[in-house]
Amino acid sequence: MSIEPSVRVEDKLFYNRYLVDAGRAHIKVRPHTTPSPELLTMLKACPARCYELNDKGQVEITVDGCIECGTCRVICEGSGDIEWSYPRGGYGVLFKFG
Amino acid sequence: MIEEKFDAIVVGAGMAGNAAALTLAQRGLKVLQLERGEYSGSKNVQGAILYADMLEKLIPDFREDAPLERHLVEQRFWMMDDRSHTGLHYRSDDFNEEKPNRYTIIRAQFDKWFSQKVREAGATVLCETTVTELAQDAYGRVIGVRTDRADGEIHADVVVLAEGVNGLLGTRAHLRERPKPDKVALAVKEMHFLPRETIEARFNLKGDEGMVIEAAGTISRGMTGMGFIYANKECISLGIGCLVADFQRTGETPYGLLDRFKRHPSVAPLIEGSEVKEYAAHLIPEGGFKAIPQLYGEGWVVVGDAAQLNNAIHREGSNLAMTSGRIAAEAIFQVKSRKDPMTAENLALYKTMLDESFVIKDLKKYKDMPALMHTQSQNFFLTYPELVSRAMQNFLRVDGTPKVEKEKTTFKSFIKARSWSGLFGDAFRLARAWR
Q: Which residue in A has a C-alpha nearest to residue B278's C-alpha?
């Protein structure tokens, strides 16, 4: 698409502090065979690149690096593609500066 | 269930929630404030600029111990194309006053301090507690909240929803709709650390003087958006935000946009050699006056970003948050003082008072700006910045072309890009929306 150097989001997330609530993902993607346009949007719109395509062409989420902005909620919750909750108290991203 | 009943529960410990909890506690109400972060501030993200006037109304002597970064003496507006920027800078020594008007702050640190003031005023602040839903009675009246703690339900006469732009509770209880993609922007930000002297030299600052740059143009790739660069004491907050609907439409990535902004020839030298220590993202309400939801109801009020109170034109949000939080608290105090119940009818006082404040007056003034900027984003964020850049370069480059011809070239480029009717139409629409 472009010749610009690719940005490694993983490196950016490495600067941040998290307390991961293992086994309790606060965002869940509804099981599907073919992803909706909204879900496909998240592959690029998520600032932490939590959304990825698996080898079956389905959209999966890994919430460990989530910075809790709510963009996917705004785009995907209305169509029922995802369930969005806040992490349990104390868990998730812990901003040092904010 | 916690048996103890409170006069008010405040959900959230950002600017609006802290202002509300502080004011309620100062008036002698029994207040519980719930915050999901490990401390107040650990989930909060902003540029950030603090407006002294609104904080003074809450904590008059805040300058004595608040963690402030720099007081602003200079504002730069940049209109950018890919290789240049055309700037409008305003700097005045008048801003070096005894009680400065605007400061840069770091929210996680500032909010921690703010929260301490809330506790000192007598409120109970409970962190690491996520409110999962509002507790309602059989008639739908809000009577408290449920949390993710074991003894989860807590009751109060009124709940102040200061849950932020992405607040779930109000939507879950059908008190307001989820923000729409064309009514919120997604902003991403990095904190760039540099030695103090380097920052001061690069931005022409002395001591605690500060400056901010607000930038618009081709950096947003035709989307409605802005970049910003704020000087703190030992770091620079640098970020860019665009409408969520525009990200959806274009397939641009937020981090790609941020990276391009950082590599712009006008920006790169400012952050050269810096160490990045955090990457954050946050939504910003952009819908303006027309996006404000119902602000009160049976046993509840909503304040701050959760109520979409943000002035996108002036880049003001935290002061609207603080003011709405304070006013909601004052309204609740008045209802309480009259020994009246916290019904929608009585809590309507909050809206009446807010309508009279600068918060609603300012948002009303610019009620047509969001629609104009959002529908004309190609023109305002791509075409005009490029035209202006070419005009400036044509004006400055000395190459033997007679000035008359140079002016003609510039003139023609504008007509060609936007046509006469387009130019007049844009000017007219902008003037009307600004009025």
A: A15
pLDDT in tens, B198-237: 999 999 999 999 999 999 999 999 999 999 999 999 999 9
Buried b (16+ CB within 10 A) or exposed e, B154-185: bbbbbbbbbbbbbbbbbbebebbebbebbbbb
Cα–Cα distance between B33 and B365 in angstroms, integer? Answer: 33
A-B Cβ pairs (cutoff 8 Å, strict)? 138
Domain count, chain A: 1
Q: Which two tokens stand for residue A74?
A: 């705004």
Q: Are B42 and A95 a contacting pair at CB < 8 A?
A: yes
pLDDT digits (tens, 9 = 90+) for A39-84: 999 999 999 999 999 999 999 999 999 999 999 999 999 999 999 9
> Does A85 map to a domain?
yes
Q: For residue B266, count CB atoms less than 10 angstroms from its CB and return exposed for 0-12, middle for 13-18, buried for 19 or more.
A: middle
A92 touches A65 (CB < 8 A): no
Cβ contact B11:B145 at 8 Å = yes
**Exposed (0-12), middle (13-18) or buried (19+): which is B89, by Cβ within 10 Å?**
exposed
Are A89 and B147 a contacting pair at CB < 8 A?
yes
Q: Does domain B184-285 have CATH number 3.30.9.90?
A: yes
CATH 2.40.50.140 fits B2-67+106-178+288-366, yes or no: no
> How far is it, in rounded angstroms, from Cα B120 to Cα B115?
9
Residues of the domain holding A83 = 9-94
ipTM summary value: 0.95
- B321 DSSP 8-state letter: H
**Is A16 inside a domain boundary?**
yes
| Spatial separation of the C-alpha atoms in residues B389 and B412, rounded to whole Å | 14
